[in-house]
Amino acid sequence: MDRNGVPRIGGSPMLLVVKLVIIGVLLLLLAICKVLSVFSLQEVVGAIALGAIAYALLSGEEKDQEKKKITIVSDKKTEYNDVCEKADADYRFLQMSLQAIQDKELHYLLQSMQQIAERLLGYLEKHPERIPVASRFVNYYQDRTASLVRQYLSMREAGLRAELQHSLLQNMKNTFRGFLSAYESQLGKVMESELLDMEAEMKVAQQVMDEEGIRAKDTVYLPIEDEKEEKKSKKEQEDNNTPLKYAGIALAALIGAVGIYKLTDKKKEE
Hints:
Helix content: over 70%
Number of strands: 0
Strand content: under 5%
Order of helices and strands: HHHHHHH
Structural class: mainly alpha
Distance between the termini: 114 Å
């Protein structure tokens, strides 16, 4: 079926038209020959056979094209799967190797790289169309990281001399500092198209608002912590004012009581 749900016979609409034209022409020729008796029955049958052969050739060509397309798609999926499997295997190996790396700075660098790799691979799971862009990251940067860590652990276990270990460790740190920047750069490249889409969408939204005369609101943003501090300050201020409030009420009551007492005494004297 096509995108509108209409059945499609034989795949390509153009080839379908060609087939129908061929069949129509053959039927027309058969009818004319029958009426005019121009050709013998054997000649007519031969013409129909030639038409059938031509039709079969066209159908075979179309099937070959469809088969070729399916093969290409299948190859693409296999290629994508290979890239994802390699990336996942290297990530798991490096994650397990973190426990064996005792140097704090090297451990920190590799852990930071792994965090970026986790985000990148998670993004590729949701957007497999970006896998080709990530091939540089998978096949070089992450691959070299795994290879260097594997060799470093192997040499350390073999009992490499302390001075050589120190020199190797310093070189690895320098390399991994560069790799950390490369990891961040590769993550940006993989997500670049989505960032561009977001920027384009916000630009269009801004144009629409400008055309409709809508202006951004001037709002005062208070972070949550500041809001809590402000509420706390108000509460403390209220708590501090509470004794004064009660003292004022008590003083007013006392003055009222004295006034009533004097008024009562005055009436008694009268």
